[in-house]
Design brief:
The complex is a heterodimer of chains A (190) and B (307). Chain A is globular. Chain A has helices spanning 13-22, 49-58, 62-71, 79-84, 179-189; strands at residues 3-7, 26-30, 41-44, 73-77, 85-87, 98-103, 114-118, 129-133, 138-142, 147-151, 157-162, 165-168. In chain A, 55% of the residues are buried. Chain A has a single domain, classed as Rossmann fold (3-Layer(aba) Sandwich), CATH 3.40.50.880. Chain A is an alpha/beta fold and 190 residues long. In chain A, the strands form three sheets. Chain A has a seven-stranded mixed beta sheet with strand order 2-1-3-4-12-11-10, sandwiched between helices. A three-stranded mixed beta sheet of chain A has the order 5-6-9. Chain A has a two-stranded antiparallel sheet with strand order 7-8. Chain B has 307 residues and is α/β, with parallel strands linked by helices. Chain B is built from 14 helices and nine strands. An eight-stranded parallel beta sheet of chain B has the order 8-7-6-5-4-3-2-9, with helices on both faces. In chain B, helix 3 packs parallel to helix 5 (77-86) and helix 8 (171-189) crosses helix 10. Chain B is globular, with a radius of gyration of 19 Å. Chain B starts with a helix and ends in a 27-residue tail after the last helix. Classes of the chains: A alpha/beta (190), B alpha/beta (307). Chain A binds chain B through residues 8-15, 31, 46-48, 50-51, 54-55, 58, 78-79, 90, 104-105, 107-116, 131-135, 152-154, 156, 171, 174, and chain B through 8, 10-19, 21-23, 25-26, 28-33, 48-54, 84, 88-90, 107, 110, 112-113, 135-137, 265-266, 268-270, 273. Strand 7 of chain A pairs antiparallel with strand 1 (16-17) of chain B.
Chain lengths: 190, 307
């Protein structure tokens, strides 16, 4: 059975775990380096990226997570996307694995948080994806072989793929739509 | 609700702002975290640096409100704006129970969450704010399932059990968290024909009672608050089954706020790991001087405010 970890330092990790369980995947909460053993992929959930980053540093997770990313599939949603980015223009701990430049809170404060239907390249079926943006970051730039797989009507990039890595500005774990989770599970199986 | 809030033209997304999903969604992003009371931008930075997932901006922490007496109101908007400027994490602020104009002001200045809070002096002794009217989310206090579901019915997107703020005594935080959770277990154990009478008895909307029964938890995120002063207190509430914790006076009324703040953050993440809990509990200096809740007359207990 496939085993996917969800970084459980802070944030909406239960929501990802519930989604994975629905898809018959074993989900594991990751808080310490040893929890990464035997996983086929890792999701870094939404939450506060500063909180997640600081706890990852204190509990010596930074190097093990970078090594994990070099070999396995990794998906960052919202704060997770920030954490995986090479550059965000702010001083906070980052894994810095993926060739993306991200801007935090790029749409404004909570009053500007929004829902919108989006087309996502490579997704099963015709229906748009119900995307929930909460104090969300955006992709300012994608470098190297990173492929933008979804953008807002004004062209702002909000999801991308690079090799084994997936990032989304929005929160598929807050919806009933499991297509992005299934896409990630396929990436982890490859 | 979508009609009232309209379509957003501000951020170029063409998306819908202010839906219940994005309001409740922010609370989901705060889960497993610690929300800290701060009274200055400097304290806000210390909280962020320690790993707080959000801060509550206010002029006086509950321990001082209790000590000073008098009417406690919404904080100066300029002071809240200073804290919003100082940190990148979400900033919450308190409005008085029923004071919807204070809430309008907090929404206007860009607060991310409003706490309609019993810690301030109530502005209305019968009615709470109709929270569905706002684009930003509200968190409200509760002591039991009925109170929680009444607030959710009015539009609260997050709940916190009240405890007894400004005391450093965790006993009522435990009592209120346990009461909500045991009310839910009782609800789940009863045959469906008993649910309407149960809803009537606890004074809660039937549909929300049914939803809670199906989910086996509150329909929104539920934090604990009121009297949490140590890493062990935070882990205790997490093990009892809340989604995260508010720490009010407990941090900046203690001897070494930065260290205690970080320790409480770590304890909230590793709440099930006694080895880590033991380590982070060491050498934290003086905890806040507490007040035994049992020595407080009922009329001085803030948690009795709310209807």
């Amino acid at each position: 059975m496939m085993k996917i970890g969800v970084l459980a330092l802070q944030g909406a990790f239960h929501e990802h775990i519930n989604m994975l369980n629905r898809l018959d995947v074993e989900a594991v909460e990751v808080r310490l380096p040893a929890d990464l053993e035997g996983l086929d992929g890792l999701i870094i959930p939404g939450g506060e990226s500063t909180t997640i980053g600081k706890l990852a540093v204190i509990y010596d997770l930074m190097e093990p997570l970078r090594q994990f990313a070099a070999e396995k599939a990794m998906w960052g949603t919202c704060a997770g996307m920030i954490f995986m980015a090479k550059e965000i223009g702010m001083d906070q701990p980052l894994l810095g694995v993926m060739d993306i430049v991200v801007e935090r809170n790029a749409f404004g404060r909570q009053v500007d948080s929004f829902e919108v239907d989006l087309d996502v390249a490579g997704l099963e079926g015709e229906a748009p994806f119900p995307a929930v943006f909460i104090r969300a970051p955006k992709l300012v730039d994608t470098l190297e072989d990173t492929e933008v797989i979804s953008a807002l009507a004004d062209g702002t990039a909000v999801a991308a793929k690079q090799g084994n890595w997936l990032v989304t500005s929005f929160h598929p774990e807050l919806t009933g739509d499991d297509r992005l989770h299934r896409m990630f599970i396929e990436m982890a199986a490859a | 609700m979508s009609d009232a809030n309209g379509v957003n033209g501000v951020n170029g997304s063409s998306g819908e702002v202010g839906s219940f999903k994005v309001k409740a969604g922010l609370a989901q992003m705060l889960k497993g975290g610690v929300i800290m009371d701060v009274v200055t931008p400097e304290q806000a930075k210390i909280a962020e640096e320690a790993g707080a997932c959000a801060v509550m901006a206010l002029e006086r922490v509950p321990a001082d409100i209790r000590k000073d007496g008098g009417v406690a109101r919404m904080s100066d908007p300029d002071m809240i704006k200073g804290i919003i400027e100082a940190v990148s994490i979400p900033v919450m602020a308190k409005a008085r129970i029923g004071h919807f104009v204070e809430a309008q002001i907090l929404q206007e200045i860009g607060a991310d969450y409003i706490d309609e809070s019993e810690v301030l002096t109530p502005a209305d002794e019968e009615y709470h704010i109709y929270k569905h009217d706002f684009k930003i989310p509200f968190v409200c206090g509760c002591r039991n399932l009925g109170e929680a579901l009444r607030r959710i019915g009015e539009g609260a997107a997050m709940i916190r059990t009240k405890g007894e703020a400004g005391t450093g005594d965790v006993v009522h935080a435990v009592w209120h968290a346990r009461t909500v959770l045991s009310d839910i277990r009782k609800l789940q154990g009863m045959p469906v024909e008993e649910v309407m009478t149960f809803a009537k008895e606890i004074g809660a909307p039937f549909e929300l009672v049914m939803q809670t029964r199906e989910l086996g938890r509150l329909p929104v995120v539920n934090f604990a608050a009121g009297g949490i002063a140590t890493p062990a207190d935070a882990a205790l509430l997490m093990q009892i089954g809340v989604d995260g914790v508010f720490v009010g006076s407990g941090i900046f009324k203690s001897g070494d706020p930065a260290k205690r703040a970080r320790a409480i953050v770590e304890a909230t993440t590793h709440y099930n790991n006694p080895e880590i809990l033991a380590k982070v509990s060491e050498n934290l200096g003086e905890a806040m001087v507490g007040i035994n809740v049992s020595s407080l007359p009922t009329e001085e207990q803030l948690s009795t405010r709310g209807w």
